[in-house]
Amino acid sequence: MSLDAALRQARDRFVAANPRSRAAHEKAAEAMPGGNTRTTLFYPPFPLTMASADGCRLTDLDGHTYVDLLGDYTAGLYGHSNPVIRKALDAALDGGWNLGAHGEHEARLAVVLCERVPSLELVRFTNSGTEANLLAIATATLHTGRRTVLVFDGGYHGAVLAFGDGGVPVNVPHRFVVGQYNDIAATERLVAEHAADLAAILVEPMLGSGGCVPATPEFLRFLRDLATATGAVLVFDEVMTSRVAGGGMQELLGITPDLTTLGKYTGGGMTFGAFGGRADLMAVYDPRRPGAVPHAGTFNNNVLSMAAGHAGLTEVFPPEVSRELFVRGEDLRAELNRIGGTVMRWTGLGSMMTVHFQREPIAAPRDMRSTPAQRELFHLDMLDRGFHLARRGMIAMSLEIGAAECAEFCAAVSGFIADYGGLPR
Question: Is this structure's pTM higher than 0.85?
Fold first, then answer.
């Protein structure tokens, strides 16, 4: 069977199986563009609408239950009903919300983060990883008096800081130069042209949206040395990669940036972001100092995120649990690559991974060969087999994903390969 024919059949099965999700999407489109308010969750012919969730499982409006391998793009680390998180939220609600004042939880969470993440001498909270990265860039430009920011092709640092295929029209208007990920020689040449005005180097230690491609230790050490030599501020976007170890990928590799940004699961599954690093850089936001720079945000210290974040990091996801999850993810990816044979390659690190329909090595987005049709067929087929993952083939394991779910998913992938073979383009 051709890929086009297989895809048509998969789409037809999906439409026939999900009439209630289709109706919900059409109703939503009356009030939101395309029935959507988070672009990455949309896919044609229409996205599923989930009705409930528990543990590591989702149930849609049509009554189908899925093992949730997406983990809300790494934000859902704790699953959908962790009792420790629930207890922390209930206790926070019992004390009232929208306080419009300092609360006890925010300082407790800040202390835990500063103890765990090597670069964090001081930290401030935001509402998302996007905000955290915007403020990290602003901090760097303020500190250096320069304007140019080095980012990398395939990098994603938030809704207005996306650099797949070079960038998107809604990106904020900083003076960006886009380098090639994992390419030391090309980066060196690029920076030579902009060194005098280089304010920041912003990098994901592993591309997340860009295909779960880890940076090599040599590349990240090169960026550390480059920032030091040019006087630029090195920013590690660890919004996703902070889960690979207690102190994130910087701890795993022993490479310390000047600033770090966090988000996703770090707020216990609630709305959250954070940026922090060297005390001299962060001191500009100290309101006790003359000439301090304001950093406002109504919900920066909202009681739910502060309470859930602290409970999650201290009771559910201490460093030893992060190590266990890392090993479980490494084992799953190794087995998936064994199963994939000549058909597919899974890239990633620890509990995060993405499928690519090729066997050639992948060091950067330019090396990727998968077609949109291949990714769509895999996504629809996995839904049909009871597994929910990103349309682009990304997995972010929650703590609720155990040996049984991993074995079931490997069997599903084996079934896909048996049914579709080498996936012609």
Answer: yes
